[in-house]
Amino acid sequence: MAHLTVDIGGRPGLDCRGFCEYCYFKHVKETVPFGCRYCPPYKKGCDYCTRSVREYYQGFRELRDIADDVLARLQTIPDDVTRITISGGGDPSCYPCFTDLIELLSSMEAPLHIGYTSGKGFDDPSVARFLIDHGLSEVSFTVFSVNPALRKRYMHDPTPEASLSVLEQLAAEIDVYAATVVLPGVNDGPVLEETVAWLEDRGAKGLILMRFANSREQGLILGNSPVLRDQRVQTVEEFRDMVGDLAGRFSMKISGTPLWDPEIGSPFALAREPDLLGKLPRLEGKATVITGSIAAPFIRKILGSRGKGAHVVAVEKDIACLITIEDLQALDPASLDPLVILPGRAFVHDREAASILSRDGVERTVIRGPESLTADAETSMGMTRSGVLALEMEAFSDLIRLINRYGG
Ligand code: SF4
After folding, report:
1. Which of 61, 251, 394, 396 has the largest count of CB atoms under 10 Å?
2. Residue nearest ligand 1's atom 6 by CA
3. How far is the CA of 141 from the centre of ligand 1 (A)?
4. What is the signed CA dihedral for 211, 236, 268, 386, rounded to 10 degrees?
5. How far is ligand 1, taken at its centre, from the CA of residue 244, in Å?
6. What is the rounded (10 degree) CA torsion for 279, 280, 281, 285?
């Protein structure tokens, strides 16, 4: 079984017919490299934390380069290709040679998957039939609203009726996962209910609702806040309740990011599973576990069920994966244990973190925790509850073993 990802390049906003009003890549500034888990110990900044994080591509790649790349990769894959995913910084629907690209990839006779499209590039409804006939089996499609005027106003979709027609035809025949950023006062409330009902009626497999973020604490770390001046933002609790309410009223799967997947109970479904908690290793070491404000109560509960050695500290950032060095600077080092564990994906350089967190003269060891302790809605959308629980059990077991080993 081999899964081939085809990167078509492209720049968010620029290679998707202009920025959507709410796009997080709008106003992105040149910031110094953050540092991350991929950086070498002696250097802050690698390709991932300087370029990939802002999806810094030159533009769409030439079709010929993509074809050469695919051919070269096929020669290194021993098995048959069982799935092909089209990804990139720009929007596949806006790729200039889109039909040629699909024809090229469909010749490999593996199911095609479009990792993300806004559909803004679909001007002709007949493209849906073309895609289905060429093996498209799954697509993640940003909808924002099924009201064409709202799509036009907020996504700058020049042909919203055509895009919605493509979405409708795809939902009837293949696996369509819709997504929408929720702008309170714009596409929430009855507008959102209309969108959910429309998608369910057309046969979509699921909808992921994304809480709009407008400040650094909410996750805009590329110097780009606010994305929308004067736009109201839901609190995490309001957002979670809205997701739960909608999921309870429709049969299509509805989940939200950063919170929550009501069907699975994630993120951190493990926190409500006392029997499984009892199977985690006993916590014998001592450490401070740094995380974001959403994850902190869950991690505290899970680790607390296995011993008293973990001191879970939340920084002023909703999402742990988006923690940067400023968040660590705001902590009082004296309140930390000699061993400090950072989220696996936090955007900090380990050496810089160790020096900031030891600035009171007490040397602290800083290490990375598991890459992820749970599955967010985008990950859990295609997973079962037992799959998510297994992932969490493994990640928390690793974290506890790390604390026991280094925080003795
Ligand atoms: S389609 Fe996606 S990447 Fe492009 S501008 Fe809209 S939100 Fe940004």
Report:
1. 396
2. 20
3. 11
4. -50
5. 26
6. -150
Give the pLDDT confidence score for residue 279 in this predicted structure: 98
The C-alpha atoms of residue 189 and residue 212 are separated, in whole angstroms, by 15
Query: Which pLDDT score is estimated for 33?
Result: 86
DSSP for 157-182 reads -S-HHHHHHHHHHHHHHSEEEEEEEE
Which protein residue's CA is at the shortest distance from atom 7 of ligand 1?
Answer: 23
Stretch(es) of the chain classified as CATH 3.40.50: 269-406
Mean pLDDT of residues grouped by 10 in the chain (408 residues)? 90 89 85 88 88 72 94 86 92 95 94 95 97 97 97 96 98 97 97 98 97 92 89 96 97 95 95 97 98 97 96 96 95 97 96 96 96 90 92 98 94
Q: Is residue 53 within 8 Å of 224, Cβ to Cβ?
A: no
Helical spans, DSSP H, in 136-235: 148-155, 160-173, 189-202
118 CB near ligand 1 (under 6 Å): yes
Q: What is the pLDDT of residue 129?
A: 98
Quickly name the fold that domain 2-257 has.
TIM Barrel (3.20.20)
The finding on whether 271 has its CB within 6 A of some atom of ligand 1 is no
The alpha carbon of 118 and the centre of ligand 1 are apart by a number of angstroms equal to 7
Cis peptide before 258 (omega within 30 of 0): yes
DSSP 347-384: BS-HHHHHHHTTTTS---EEEE--S-SS--HHHHTT--
| 260 and 375 Cβ atoms separated by less than 8 Å | no
| Ligand 1 contacts CB of residue 27 (under 6 A) | no
Is the CB–ligand 1 distance for residue 28 below 6 Å? Answer: no
pLDDT at 131: 98
The predicted pLDDT at position 56 comes to: 62
Domain with CATH 3.20.20.70 in the chain: 2-257
Q: In the CATH scheme, what is the code of domain 269-406? A: 3.40.50
Alpha helices, DSSP H, located in 208-273: 236-249
DSSP 41: T
Is the Cα dihedral 51, 52, 56, 60 positive or negative? positive
For ligand 1, pick from 118, 120, 167 the residue to mutate: most ligand atoms within 8 Å of CB.
118
Q: Is the CB of 23 under 6 A from ligand 1?
A: yes
